[in-house]
Amino acid sequence: MQGWLLRFVLAYDSPAMIKIAKYSTFAIALVMLGLLRPGFAADSDTPVKTDTAKVIDLTYTFDASTIYWPTEKGFVHQFEKNGDTPEHYFYSSANYAAPEHGGTHTDAPRHFSRDGMTLDQVPLADCIGPAAVIDFSARAARDRDAMLTVDDIKTYEAAYGPIPDGAIVVARSGWGKYYPDKKRYMGTDKPAIDTASMDPGNSKDFPVHRLWLGANKPGFENVANADKLPAKGATIFCIPMKIGNGTGGPTRIFAVLP
Ligand SMILES: [Zn+2]
Predict the structure, then answer these.
(1) Residues near ion ligand 1 (Cβ under 5 Å)
(2) Which domains are present in the chain?
(3) Fewer CB atoms inside 10 A, N or C side of the chain?
């Protein structure tokens, strides 16, 4: 059932999907919920050990270069204190502000679903899973509107076996290499909002966001370093900031290689 949903989502081929592909796919990771969860069971005597050499950071740094929708303000970070105190010790602290949707981030179901979970309600179990990395970068290099298709999934499963339930599917477009070059990464010479407004029906539609988030599943966008992931075998952790009433938010995403 969940597998069917995934296929349906990724098979949704329409101009509206193309808009989404143009503005936000780059690398979209979709959580496929299911019965199986990654096994982190450790008996109480054996702490979980992680070989840090096997950890890959899939997150872009949040700073002035972080890509947001053109209608949004960028990431703001301002030092409140940054230097020696009268008591002669160093002290530094700052304030930050940012739109929820930009850079490496999570889409909470509430983003497109009135009754969907807010970011603080998304269970961590939905944010951790075995990676299925489906590459369509060859096509995306020729066509910036390319998107993941059912055939890509079939080809993947023929090569690597069925996508496990609970997998985090990473649609790898190869566009990460352009980040943070807004012009190339966003795939248009025009401000994105102008391109979107050229077809208001499409720009309002967002069928994938609505279907996926409407099924109360989170999505993850602007995944960095997807080229460093193997097709299968890694475990992905997408850990969003726990924002009350959040429709999305900055997320540290990383993978642990097998
Ligand atoms: Zn978003």
Answers:
(1) 101, 107, 248
(2) 7-38+52-65+99-256 (3.50.30.50)
(3) N
